[in-house]
């Protein structure tokens, strides 16, 4: 091995021996023997070794060489205890990785500004009201409850126009529509499923985004008569169009409509929602959702009772938020076609800061994410405590070595540097390992976070900012777990330490154990908090997943088809649906096939007020269009009356099966044969009830809503196919695909899931928490065990001699075990007690944030967590105790 | 740095070495002899302490070294002043003279 300092060492040697010999020559000439002359020369020269050392100190690479030596030494020490090092590294990598992942996620979702100029001027326009007003008949958007207020984000086109007109000169109002729908975009023969956001023509002008290529939209584009154009996100342009500069003006087909590519957005514009996955922006009146055959938006776009637009405003410089709000509030009221009945139902404009993106995700995930961040920091602290403990224990076992080095003249600074280098090494290896850990955790999280229209777009590769945060966390960790033990280790009184024999005790060592005990205490109490959370969230998920759905969930396969998008219409469409159902039934392994216009367990659905005869009350119900075999396929039984017949369904007869809840809530004395009406002003018509179905979950696992089952709508361009299989459903997929292909060669199967997968997709937030908290809990538990075990095996090892004496004096094995258990379990008990109040506080917080359902305080979870930790503590303590009890007194005494 | 005569001030060894080398290249032994001679046997540098000083000066780029055969036929490491060394020496001498003069004023005043 080449070392930069070996050649200079030889040179130094030669240089000094030349000097000595020349000196000796002189003495020899004075008549001394060669031997005497050399001795005299050495005396005159002074100590050779100190001179050499002083010369080495003068080399420029000296600090580097020292560092290299420290690193090699540290490496040797780490290899000597591979299990401890491995445990330390894994806990560090996971701790830092999880911290980095959650930090980056929080950064993207909560803290990062939109990639537009002066984002602080942007506000999301909302309206708040105490009681929901009767100002609209249909709406598309979100309403959330904030304290006593209902906050909604949708406006009619009259409302938008009023806001735009009133704010002229004071602000700039644009709007978008939450399309939600994915569409297939075809460019140059290649198809991609994309997310499209319909926006007003002035949308990018308001945001002040400049195109990377071509032009962005203008007001002229947003009209029914304009040439259809789209603007592409930078990401879509690069990934799907290869970043070619000649795409401007070329055609892009979306569903069945041809658009001209007007421009490409700059790379730094990542959308208006944190983690936005929008790839294509289209003018509202030319957007696919507007042009679709059955577009309800197009029909009601100019209806003042249909509220469907989501405005964003940029205030002009010099105008305050309050001034703007007041102007908009006054304008908003002029756009209503009906009068609110009283002050409670009069909505008022609220402007919500949009500098970091629109808030729906932030509102939903912001606080939970901060709680997760807090938890992951606790894990990191526990991991650091663990490592600090290991370092402390190692410092104790290296006491003699350190004392020896100090008495040989090693400076405290030098020693401190050596010890700190070791922890820095641990931290940097852990930090390096944490990058893949963070990437994996981020990938998992972005799959679990609910976003309308599919997966969230997150920078899953560690970007410079998250890397920097990792580096900071790593350094912090090194300081946390390295500095104190190192400082303790070098403040040693070399004399007594060298004289001491194993097993004796000294005051400073007692204080060192006190530090170790405090660290273990901390770990156990953090463990209580983290394991409680783990038990709570995994238990919550388990409970929800295993709720009775009211339908068959085992062998169900779901997928969507969109024949309307490839040209099927009218009679051909109905024929297609009929033969699809028929053809799929013939596939071997398929038990039953049903069609529906709405996918079950999608989290949404088509809802409408349903009224009974006399129209006394109205029940908000899901209206479910389905084919003849749908209920049989899903396993939802009819408890009274009969199913809809195939003939009724194919002819679109006005008959319905209602769920038990509808019957109950409408208070129908004899539901069968009664007539119910539904839809806006009875728009859907009046249906005769022919059967009552058992209550079942419909759109999510939360509740069992009222459902009205009516005949399948054969005019809809898309449908969900539900298959009940006799075999594991995914195994059927190739055969099913083959069968569909026989009917239509270009029809893709979309969103193929088993029912179990479909259910778990509605539980993304619960899954996110269960997964993360579950793994944090496991990590914390392992850290507890390692910490306790390490401490106990060290203390008992150091008390070997004492135990030997006790046994020689007649102590029984049981007595020794009790002795060892007492100290270890006392420590664990202390930690448990200390951990309960913060755990209770954390549970209250989770309940407040509605991360767990409200209800009686979950003492069970707390008890389970405490039991789990107590059990593992017992395990961690018993093994060293048993080992101590097996001490052979004679051997133990001789070893001292 | 340990020095036999306690009155050799910290930092002055470097100055003496540089001055000696200004008169021509020398090996370490030669430098020690030369200092002893020029100081009229008053400054007897602890011979070993020369080497850290030489290495320090070399690191600073004030002197350079090469291996040459000595009169006795042994290989010796011979040091000589670099250009920066010469410049540095001049400023050091000036500083030293001002310092010595100042000390003198104090002692005489």
Question: Can you give me a brief rundown of this structure?
Answer:
Helices cover 52% and strands 16% of the residues of chain A.
Describe the model.
The complex is a heterodimer of chains A (896) and B (109). Chain A has 896 residues and is an alpha+beta fold. Chain A is built from 28 helices and 26 strands. Chain B has one domain (12-108): Arc Repressor Mutant, subunit A (Orthogonal Bundle). Chain B has helices at 12-22, 28-38, 50-59, 83-108, and strands at residues 26-27, 63-69, 75-81. Chain B has a 3-stranded antiparallel sheet with strand order 1-3-2. The radius of gyration of chain B is 15 Å and the shape is globular. Classes of the chains: A alpha+beta (896), B alpha+beta (109).
> How many domains would you count in the coordinates of chain B?
1
Number of domains of chain A: 5
CATH architecture assignment name of chain B: Orthogonal Bundle
* Helix/sheet category of chain B: alpha+beta
Looking at CATH, which topology of chain B would you report?
A: Arc Repressor Mutant, subunit A
Record field, number of beta strands of chain A: 26
Oligomer: heterodimer
Compute the number of helices of chain A: 28
Strand order of the largest sheet of chain B: 1-3-2
Question: Helices, strands, pairings?
Answer:
The complex is a heterodimer of chains A (896) and B (109).
Chain A (H helix, E strand, L loop, with lengths): L5 H24 L4 H12 L2 H10 L4 H19 L1 H30 L10 E8 L8 E2 L3 E4 L2 E4 L4 H10 L4 E6 L5 E6 L2 E10 L3 H5 L5 E2 L14 E4 L1 H8 L9 E4 L2 E8 L15 E4 L4 H4 L4 H5 L5 E2 L2 E6 L5 H14 L13 E6 L6 H38 L1 H9 L4 H37 L15 H27 L3 H6 L7 H39 L10 E6 L8 H16 L4 E7 L10 E5 L6 E9 L3 H5 L3 E4 L4 H6 L3 E5 H7 L8 E4 L6 E9 L13 E5 L7 E7 L7 H11 L6 E5 H7 L2 H35 L1 H9 L4 H36 L10 H27 L3 H7 L1
Parallel strand pairs in A: 2-13, 7-12, 9-11, 19-24, 21-23
Antiparallel strand pairs in A: 1-4, 1-14, 1-15, 3-4, 5-14, 6-7, 6-10, 8-11, 9-12, 10-11, 16-25, 16-26, 17-25, 18-19, 18-22, 20-23, 21-24, 22-23
Helix pairs in contact in A: 1-2, 1-3, 4-14, 5-12, 5-14, 5-15, 6-11, 12-13, 12-15, 12-17, 12-24, 14-15, 14-24, 17-24, 17-26, 17-27, 18-22, 24-27, 25-28, 26-27
Chain B lengths: L11 H11 L3 E2 H11 L11 H10 L3 E7 L5 E7 L1 H26 L1
Antiparallel strand pairs in B: 1-3, 2-3
Helix pairs in contact in B: 1-4
């Amino acid at each position: 091995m080449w070392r930069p300092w070996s050649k200079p060492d030889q040179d130094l040697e030669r240089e000094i021996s030349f000097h000595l010999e020349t000196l000796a020559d002189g003495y020899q000439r004075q008549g001394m023997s060669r031997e005497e002359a050399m001795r005299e020369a050495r005396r005159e020269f002074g100590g050779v070794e100190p001179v050499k050392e002083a010369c080495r100190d003068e080399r420029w690479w000296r600090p580097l060489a020292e560092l290299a030596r420290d690193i090699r030494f540290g490496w040797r020490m780490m290899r000597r205890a591979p299990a401890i090092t491995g445990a330390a590294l894994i806990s560090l990598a996971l701790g830092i990785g999880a911290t980095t992942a959650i930090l980056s996620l929080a950064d993207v979702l909560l803290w990062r500004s939109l990639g537009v100029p002066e984002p602080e001027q942007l506000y999301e326009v909302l309206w708040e009201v105490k009681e929901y007003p009767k100002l609209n008949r249909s709406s598309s958007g979100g309403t959330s409850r904030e304290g006593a207020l209902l906050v909604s984000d949708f406006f009619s086109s009259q409302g938008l126009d009023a806001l735009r007109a009133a704010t002229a000169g004071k602000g700039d109002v644009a709007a978008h529509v939450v399309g939600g729908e994915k569409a297939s975009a075809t460019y140059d023969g290649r198809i991609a499923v994309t997310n499209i956001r319909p926006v007003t023509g002035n949308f990018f002008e308001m945001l002040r985004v400049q195109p990377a290529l071509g032009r962005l939209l203008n007001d002229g584009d947003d009209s029914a008569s304009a040439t259809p154009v789209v603007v592409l996100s930078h990401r879509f342009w690069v990934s799907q169009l290869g970043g070619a500069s000649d795409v401007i003006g070329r055609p892009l087909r979306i569903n069945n409509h041809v658009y001209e590519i007007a421009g490409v957005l700059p790379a730094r514009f990542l959308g208006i929602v944190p983690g936005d996955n929008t790839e294509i922006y289209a003018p509202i009146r030319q957007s696919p959702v507007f042009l679709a055959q059955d577009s309800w938006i197009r029909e009601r776009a100019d209806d003042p009772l249909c509220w469907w637009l989501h405005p964003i405003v940029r205030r002009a410089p010099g105008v305050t938020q309050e001034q703007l709000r007041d102007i908009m509030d006054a304008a908003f009221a002029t756009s209503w076609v009906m009068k609110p009945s009283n002050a409670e139902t009069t909505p008022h404009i609220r402007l919500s800061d949009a500098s970091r993106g629109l808030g729906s995700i932030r509102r939903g995930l912001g606080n939970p994410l901060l709680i997760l961040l807090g938890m992951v920091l606790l894990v990191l602290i526990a991991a650091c405590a663990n490592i600090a403990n290991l370092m402390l224990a190692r410092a104790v076992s290296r006491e003699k070595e350190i004392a020896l080095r100090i008495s040989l003249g090693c400076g405290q600074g030098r020693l401190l540097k050596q010890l700190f280098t070791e922890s820095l090494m641990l931290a940097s290896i852990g930090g390096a390992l944490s990058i893949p850990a963070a990437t994996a955790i981020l990938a998992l999280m972005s799959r679990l976070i609910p976003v309308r229209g599919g997966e969230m777009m997150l920078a899953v590769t560690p970007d410079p900012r998250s890397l920097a945060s990792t580096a900071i966390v790593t350094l912090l960790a090194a300081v946390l777990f390295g500095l104190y033990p190192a400082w303790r280790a070098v403040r040693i009184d070399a004399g007594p330490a060298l004289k001491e024999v194993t097993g004796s005790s000294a005051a400073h060592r007692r204080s060192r154990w006190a530090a170790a005990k405090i660290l273990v205490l901390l770990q156990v109490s953090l463990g209580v908090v983290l394991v409680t959370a783990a038990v709570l969230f995994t238990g919550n998920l388990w409970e929800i997943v295993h709720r009775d759905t009211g339908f068959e969930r085992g062998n169900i396969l779901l997928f969507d088809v969109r024949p309307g998008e490839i040209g099927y219409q009218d009679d051909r469409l109905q024929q297609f649906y009929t033969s699809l159902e028929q053809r799929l039934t013939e596939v071997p392994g398929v038990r039953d096939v049903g069609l529906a216009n709405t996918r079950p367990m999608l989290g949404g659905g088509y809802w409408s007020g349903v009224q009974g005869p006399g129209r006394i009350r109205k029940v908000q119900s899901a209206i479910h269009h389905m084919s003849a075999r749908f209920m049989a396929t899903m396993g939802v039984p009819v408890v009274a009356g009969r199913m809809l017949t195939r003939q009724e369904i194919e002819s679109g007869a006005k008959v319905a099966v209602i769920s038990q809840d509808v019957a109950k809530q409408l208070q129908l004395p004899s539901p069968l044969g009664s007539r119910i009406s539904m839809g806006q002003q009875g728009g859907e018509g009046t249906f005769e009830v022919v059967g009552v179905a058992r209550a079942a979950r419909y759109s999510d696992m939360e509740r069992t809503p009222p459902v009205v089952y009516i005949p399948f709508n054969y005019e809809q361009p898309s449908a969900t196919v539900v298959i009940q299989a006799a075999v594991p459903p995914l195994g059927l997929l190739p055969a099913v695909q083959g069968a569909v292909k026989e009917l239509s060669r270009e029809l893709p199967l979309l969103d193929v899931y088993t029912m179990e997968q479909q259910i778990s997709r509605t539980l993304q937030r619960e899954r996110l928490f269960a997964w993360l908290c579950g793994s944090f809990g496991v990590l914390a538990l392992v850290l507890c065990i390692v910490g306790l075990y390490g401490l106990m095996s060290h203390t008992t090892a150091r008390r070997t001699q004492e135990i030997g004496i006790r046994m020689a004096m007649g102590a029984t094995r049981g007595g020794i075990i009790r002795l060892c258990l007492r100290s270890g379990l006392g420590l664990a008990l202390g930690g448990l007690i200390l951990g309960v109040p913060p755990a209770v506080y954390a549970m209250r917080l989770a309940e407040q944030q509605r991360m767990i359902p409200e209800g009686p305080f979950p003492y069970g979870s707390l008890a389970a967590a405490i039991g789990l930790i107590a059990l593992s503590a017992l395990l961690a303590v018993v093994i060293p105790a048993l080992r101590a009890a097996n001490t052979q007194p004679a051997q133990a005494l001789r070893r001292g | 740095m340990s020095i036999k005569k306690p009155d050799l001030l910290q930092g002055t060894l470097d100055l003496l070495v540089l001055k000696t080398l200004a008169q021509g290249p020398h090996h370490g032994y030669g430098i020690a002899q030369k200092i002893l001679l020029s100081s009229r046997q008053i400054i007897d540098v602890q011979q070993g302490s020369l080497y850290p000083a030489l290495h320090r000066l070399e690191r600073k780029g004030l002197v350079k070294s090469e291996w040459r055969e000595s009169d006795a036929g042994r290989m010796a490491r011979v040091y000589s002043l670099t250009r920066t060394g010469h410049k540095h020496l001049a400023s050091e001498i000036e500083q030293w003279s001002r310092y010595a003069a100042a000390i003198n004023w104090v002692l005489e005043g």
